[in-house]
């Protein structure tokens, strides 16, 4: 079914990591979460990197890590960070090196998930009120949507699952042949 890489893109809290693990298991390929990959390489959490070096430095580090992970895994599923596609020409890079899938989830669902897992662990969200969070997500999505829209496949669901996503990938591969 899969002859190269699948990159999952979308907002934080859209389920890229959870869905990515399920998808990789289903497809019997390796799974990589780009944030975790960066944390292993840098020896510190993404939050700490943001705090110590700022977003600009992090985005450069993220672009390097994306390229390294892509080189390391000829086949597999890579869950990107929410902002990954929006910087350093990353979305074009992703589309040249695999199938990109935009996991589109309503903002209200994302906020519900984030509150359940704890907002404080996300560097761009810590300390914001519910109203500020909704505004932040709306504005962020408005900016990022132009990059997410470049994805090979858009998977819109409030409750994404690997089975449905595999069907979409199969349909894409059949059309591609």
The CATH top-level class label? Alpha Beta
What structural category arises from helix and sheet content?
Answer: alpha/beta
* Overall pLDDT level: 90
Number of helical regions:
7
Strand content: 5-15%
Fraction of residues in helix:
55-70%
Order of helices and strands: EHEHHEHEHHEH
Number of strands: 5
Q: How would you write the strand order of the largest sheet?
A: 2-3-1-4-5
Overall number of domains = 1
State the fourth-level CATH superfamily: P-loop containing nucleotide triphosphate hydrolases
Q: Biggest β-sheet: count, sense, barrel? A: 5 strands, parallel
CATH architecture: 3-Layer(aba) Sandwich
Keywords: Amino-acid biosynthesis, Aromatic amino acid biosynthesis, ATP-binding, Cytoplasm, Kinase, Magnesium, Metal-binding, Nucleotide-binding, Transferase
Family: Belongs to the shikimate kinase family.
Catalytic activity: shikimate + ATP = 3-phosphoshikimate + ADP + H(+)
Main location: cytoplasm
Features of the shown structure:
177 residues; Rossmann fold; 5-stranded parallel β-sheet; globular
Structure description:
The protein is globular. α2 packs across α3. It has one domain: P-loop containing nucleotide triphosphate hydrolases (Rossmann fold), CATH 3.40.50. By secondary structure, the protein is α/β, with parallel strands linked by helices. The chain has 7 helices and 5 strands; from the N terminus they run βαβααβαβααβα. The protein is 56% helix and 13% strand. It catalyses: shikimate + ATP = 3-phosphoshikimate + ADP + H(+).
């Amino acid at each position: 079914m899969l002859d190269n890489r699948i990159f999952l893109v979308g907002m934080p809290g859209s389920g890229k990591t959870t869905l990515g693990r399920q998808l990789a298991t289903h497809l019997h390929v390796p799974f990589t979460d780009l944030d975790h990959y960066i944390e292993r390489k840098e020896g510190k959490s993404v939050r700490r990197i943001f705090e110590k070096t700022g977003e600009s430095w992090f985005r450069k580090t993220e672009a390097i890590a994306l390229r390294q992970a892509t080189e390391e895994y000829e086949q597999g599923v890579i869950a990107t960070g929410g902002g990954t596609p929006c910087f350093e020409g990353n979305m074009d890079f992703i589309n040249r090196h695999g199938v990109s899938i935009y996991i589109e989830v309503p903002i209200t669902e994302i906020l519900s998930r984030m509150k359940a897992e704890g907002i404080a662990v996300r560097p761009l969200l810590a300390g914001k009120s519910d109203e500020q969070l909704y505004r932040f997500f709306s504005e962020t999505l408005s900016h990022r949507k132009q990059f997410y829209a470049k994805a090979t496949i858009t998977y819109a669901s409030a409750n994404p699952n690997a089975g449905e996503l595999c069907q979409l990938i199969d349909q894409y591969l059949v059309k591609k042949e």
